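Schema walkthrough. Field components (list of strings):
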Amino acid sequence: MTSSPLIELAGITHRYGATVALDGCQLDIRPGEIHGLVGENGSGKSTVVKLLSGIMAPTEGTVRVDGKDVDLRSPTAAQAHGVLTVFQETLISDDCSGLDNVFAGTDGLFRRRRRSKAELELATEVVERLGTSPSILTASPYQLSLAERQVLTLTRALVRPWRLLILDEATSALDLATRDRLFALLQAERSNGRSVLFVSHRMDELEILIDRATVQRSGHTVGTVDRAEATPSRLLSMMDGRSESEHAGAATVTARRRDEQGTAARLCGVALSSDARPFDLDVRRGEILGVGGLDGHGAVALVEAFAGVSLPPKGKVEIDRDGLWSRVRGYRNAVASGIAYVPGKRQEEGLFRTLDVRDNLAMATYGEHSRLGVLRPHAIQQAVRAQMQRLGVVPDDPDYPITGLSGGNAQKVLVGRWLAAEPDLLVLNDPLRGVDIGTKREFYALMRELTDAGMTVVMLSTEIEELLTSCDRVAVCHDHGLEAVLEGDEMTYDGVLSAMFGQAPTLATHERTRA
Amino acid sequence: MTTVDRAPIRGGRAVPYFVPAALAVLVMIAITAQKSSQFLDGGWKLVLVYASPLVLLAMAQAPVVLSGGGGLDLSVGPGAGLVSVILAAGLIAHQISVAWIVIPAAVLLGVVIGAVNGSLVALIRIPPIIATLATYLVFAGIATQVLASPTGALPVWMDWFTDVEGVVPNVVWVMLLVGGLWWLLTRTAFWRNLLMVGSNDRAAYTAGVPVTAVRFVAYVLTGAMTGVAGLVLTAVLGGADATVGPTYTMLAIAAVALGGISLAGGRGGLLGAACGAALLFLIQNYLTLTEASSFVLQMAYGLVLVVAIVINGAWDRKRKNP
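Field assembly_structure (string):
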C-alpha cells in the first residue's frame, strides 16, 4: 500500500490562547483504510477531529486532500471535500423529523433541494443495514432511544457522498449489535476507496477494526503503526511514552502501610449509570484512595457519589459514623455526616471570584464563627490566619482578592475551606490540575499529615503519575463500571492505563458484586 | 419510498402547540359575550382593530424566539413606534403620503431595524437580551427625538385599516396577508433550517446548516413584521406618538409565551403568537368592561403569563420524557 494519502495533516499546531493543544501533528489517511487515532485525555485527539470537521481552523500547518492544500473553514467546507464526522454526543434536533435530521444542511437557506427517490432509498437502506427499523426516519426523535438517535446521525453522514468518515467515540452510544453492523458496513465500504478515522478509547474495537493507527501524546504525534504492530500493549506504551520493557519494571514511589483500621466509607451495589454493572468499593480509614478513568467513563460520577453531590442511579453510599453505617442521601446530608467535597473546576465550581481570600476560606464554617446568626469578624480573622499559615497560602493576607492568587494557592484556599470543617472523609475532584510541582509536593505532604491524623481521602486525578505517587490504592473506572482497584505492586503506570482502556491486568483486585 | 417524506409522525405531538391558547381565546370570547351583548353584535370588530398592533407584534416576535439561542427581540415595541414616527413625521408630514410609497417604506424600515438587531445578535454575537435592550433604548430615543409631541393628520387611504364595515374588519386581511406570506415561507427549506437551529444549533452547525445566516434572517423577518405593525399602529392611533411603541414589547413577549411557543426555540409558529396576543387583549377588554383598575389588569397579565409558562414547561418535559 503506497497509494497517496486521501487526506493529510502536515505540521499542524493549534493553540487555545496560551495552551498548545496540538504541536506539529502529522497524520495521513490512505484511501480505503480504517485509521485509528488514540491517546490519553488531553493528547489532542479531539482537536484533530475538530480541525478535520471544519469546526476550527489550525493556528499553523496545512491540511491536504488528494495532495492539494485545502481550507476546511466550516463543516460545510469539510463536507464538500467528503469529510463527514459523527460525534460522541448524539447531535439530533428533537423538533424535526428523523428524515429532516438526516438531510439537515443539504438545502439552501431558502431553496428546498428536492430529495431524490434514490436518496430516500439510500437513507432507508443505511438504517436497515445498521439493523434498525426505517420507522425512525419518520418518528419524532423524542421517542427514540440513544442508539436509535445515533443511528440517525450515522445515517446523516453515510447518505452524503463521503470519502472520510470520522467516528469520534461515536460507538459509545450504540448497542453492541448495531455497532457490529456498523463495523461490517465500514469494512465493506473500504473496498470503494472510502476511509474511516476511528477515534476510540476501546482497545477491543480498535483491535478488530483498524488497518493502521496513529498515537497522540500531549499534543505530539508519537507515530503511526500498521495493523500487525497495533497491539493494545504497543499502543498503550506509545501513549504513555515508555518502552514496553520499561513498563514491566515501572515502580511506584509511595511507601504504604495501614489498612487495619477498618472501613471509613463504602459503596454497595453502586452503578454509575443506569445500565452499567454494579460494584462494591470500600475506602479504608486513613488511606488516600485515588480514582482514575478516561473522560466520560464514570470517574467523576464515582467521586460525586462519595460526596453525595449526585446520587448514583443504583446502589447506596454509606459512611461509618462511630461504628454505625449511615447512608449518604444527598449533599447536605453528606456534609452533616462529615464528608467534604472539593469540586473540580475551581474557577467555575469552587471559588467565589468576587470575594477575598478570607470569605472564600471561611465560607463553609460561618456557622461556627457566629453568635445568634451574627458573624464574629474577629474569630473569623483568627481562624483564617491560622488556616492560611498551616496551608502556606501566599500572599499571607486575608484581604487579598481570590483572583489574584496563583492556581496552586487558590486551590489551597479551596481545600482549606473544607479542612476547616474537619471532615472524616475528604473527597477531591482533580484538585491539582494546572498546579505547579512545588505546590503539588506541599499538597501531597499535607494529605499525608491529614491521613496520619485519621482523615480519609478520596481523590480523583486525571494524571496517572499523580495517582501513583500520592495514593495508597487506585480505583479505575471504565465504561461506568469499576474496572480495577490496584494496590501495592499492581500500581504501575501500565496497570492504571490498561485498566482505563478496559484491559485490567489479571492480577488486579476486583471488587465486583456480579459480572 | 417517497412516501416516507409525508408519512405521519409516529404518536407524539398529538395536540398542536397552539391549541391551548386557541381554546383559551374561545373561552374568553364566550365570557366577554356573556358580559357584553354588543360584543358578538359587531363589538368584536373594534376590539380586533385595537388589538391588531399587539397581534402583529406578537407574530413579529415569533421568528427570533423560534431561532433559539435565547433569541428574543425586546425592541419590537420601540421599533414599531419608530416606524410609525418616521412615517408620520418624515413622510406624511412632508406630503409624501401615497400608499405605494408609505407601505413599502414601512416594511423597508422594519427590515433595516431587523437587520441591525440581526447583525448584533447573529454576526457580532451579543446575547439577544442585551443587544435588543440596547436597540430598544436607541429606537425609543430616536423616535422621541424625531417627534417630541404626538401628531395627527393622516392620508385618507389609511382609514382603510380601521374600517369595520365589512364582514371582518380590514386589519384581518393584513394579518392574513402576513400569515399567508409566512405560510409560504414554511414551505421553503428556511422553515426546516429555522427549527433545526432553534432546537439544537450544534447539530445544525455540524450538519452544515448556515446557523448565522438563519438567525440573521429570523431577525430581518421579525423586523419586517415590526414594520407592518408600525404602519397599522399609525392607522389605529390616527397619527404617531413616540411614547406608545415601547409599551408593546413586554406584551408581545408575553403573548409568544402564552401562544405555546417554546422560549428555548425550535417549537411553535405565528398562529400561536397571534392567539396569545388575542388572549391578552381579550383579558384587557374584559377587565375594562368590568371597570377593574389598571393595577388589576397588570396583575392579571402577570398571573396568566406565569400559568402559561408553567404549563409550557411541563408540556416540554412531558414531550421529552414520554
